[in-house]
Amino acid sequence: MASVRPLISVFSGSGEPVSDASIPLPSVLVAPLRCDLVQSVHRDMAKNRRQAYAVNITAGKTPSASSWGTGRAVARIPRVGGGGTSRSGQGAFGNMCRGGRMFAPTKTWRKWHRKINSTQKRYAVASALAATAVPSLVMARGHAIAEVPEIPLVVEDSVVAGATKTSAAVEALKAVGAYADVEKAAASKQIRAGKGKARNRRFKMRRGPLVVYSGANDQERAFRNLPGVECCEVTRLNLLQLAPGGHMGRFVVWTASAAAALETMYGAGGKSMPAATMTNADLGRIINSDEVQSVVRPALRHKPKPLRKKNAISNISALEKLDPHAAALRRSAAAAQAASAKKRSERKAAKRALSKKYKEQKKSFYAKASAQGDVCEDRTFGL
User: Which of 5, 70, 153, 340 is found 20 to 30 A from 58 (Cα to Cα)?
Assistant: First the structure.
């Protein structure tokens, strides 16, 4: 569970906290952290944007082909009929044939999308929101927040609403120490590996800050050109933005009105807040406490399992139990083998040294013999 603070500071455009402008911590920011639920819901939600794809239903099935049957010393695959071209007689239809259909052609009626329980979706969003208020989780996700004065980071509404140009948005993020995360996202841009390069997904980049505001205004035009930065209205919070990739801890920059609206959405006046199953997550301490140990029954003693009989022929440890001298025999055999190998290597080394010794003599003899020529060149054969 996230750590609880009673109040959150509100920062101005100069990066200084505004006096008498603190707001109470929204109750949703102390919701239970359920990473398993966030990952499960994110996996199913991400599938709901997919578009159906399939190969042409007639692809690879257009030739007029039929099998030649058996007895002709060729495979029974259907073959293109006719003549006068190299195509006739070639195999068709099969997935092993050139120009044939694929195995198990893809269909458009595949189960592309997933239904998700609404309660689970709300619980996952609440957990993702609570993770944005834990600095360790935000840093663990890879965000650069070393210069951020406070997590969760809340700024005045005028800081975001007053940014009508990208330069003003950059200055606002620099003032509160959030621009380092934008630079980190910009430096991470690289070409995607795989075929996505040719499918309008050439580059990939890390996520930067998420700016959450309240009400309709034009600040998205100022922030949308910053690499990695996303904007979202507080009533349209999305788990895909709060926990990209199913990983909790997105760095969020809240406006004061958006942070206050969280209590209306998730507090007493809105949906009921999820409660933790355990107040104290230290299960070992609970079990070993005197209160629990004084009322539980003694631990059951299980019957010892019968020893498994092991084959002494294939199991060395079992053989040593039956014959203590077996280990000594094995060591002596290994020593004899090592001595034999050493002696064999010494003999090889001696032979190589002797061959090397007479190598020059062999070369000189061959050179002299080659210079003298063949003794039978005059066809007298030495007679």
Answer: 70
Residue 13 lies in a domain: yes
Mark 35-68 as b/e (b = at least 16 C-beta within 10 Å): bebbbebbebbeeeeeeeeeeeeeebeebebeeb
Kindly give, in sequence order, each residue whose CB lies less than 8 Å from that of residue 266, ignoring residues fewer than 6 positions away: 26, 27, 28, 31, 126, 129, 273
Where is average pLDDT lowest: 12-26, 42-56, 339-353?
Answer: 12-26
pLDDT for 270 equals 58
For residue 155, which of 135, 139, 137, 175 has the smallest C-alpha distance? 175
Which H or E run contains 7?
Answer: strand 7-8
Per the CB < 8 A criterion, the answer to whether 275 and 78 are in contact is: no
Q: What are phi and psi of 107, to 5 degrees?
A: -120, 155
Question: What CATH number does the domain containing 194 carry?
Answer: 3.40.1370.10
Shared domain check, 326 and 262: no
What is the distance of C-alpha 90 from the center of its chain?
44
* Whether 253 and 341 share a structural domain: no
CB within 8 Å of 138: residues ≥ 6 apart: 131, 132, 145, 151, 249, 250, 251
Q: Which two tokens stand for residue 212?
A: 């959450």
List the one residue out of 308, 326, 305 whose CA is nearest residue 317. 326
Tell whether 255 and 320 lie within a shared domain: no
**CB within 8 A of 15, min separation 6: which ones?**
149, 175, 176, 177
Prediction pTM value: 0.71
The range of the structural domain enclosing residue 132 comes to: 7-48+113-266
Phi, psi of 123 (to 5 degrees): -65, -40
> Any residues with CB less than 8 A from the CB of 178 and at least 6 apart, and which?
145, 148, 153, 209, 251, 253
Among 266, 282, 306, residue at a domain's last position: 266
* 267 backbone φψ class: left, alpha, beta (φ>0; ψ -120 to 50): beta
Q: What confidence tens digit (pLDDT) does each residue in 114-173 have? A: 999 999 999 999 999 999 999 999 999 999 999 999 999 999 999 998 888 999 999 999
pLDDT band at 25 (very low <50, low <70, confident <90, very high): very high
3-state class of 103 per DSSP? coil
